[in-house]
Design brief:
132 residues; single chain; mainly alpha
Length: 132
Amino acid sequence: MATKREDLIRLLEAELDLIEGGGYERAAGEPGQDDKPIFYHGIACINHWLVPGHKPECHDDCILLDAVPEQHRTEGLPCHFIPLNDAGDTVASLEPLRDRERLEEEVKNWLRTSIRRLKDDQSAAGMAEVEY
């Protein structure tokens, strides 16, 4: 039986595969639309399977919430406030720069680091709190 940690690793690996495979790029034939927001409706997003008529919302069941600083957990897209690197860059701080390549690179690096850390800690008992 898979543990919560193993499930989290698989979800983060799937999110990394999605980004590396171009899953957040705009669809062909939609040149006027912006690229899809990072994480939002991604594999790891609790709103991935959007139910018609149900407003998307982030809440305590989000697997990324533990990586979000406490003061940003009530934001509309709390995952956009996850510190991605030692400089404290976040999706929210990088998006206005309009450098999609850099943004995706920082997110991929964060995902790789988080996956590696989770795998290294996999032998730890329980998963009361995930350390990213």
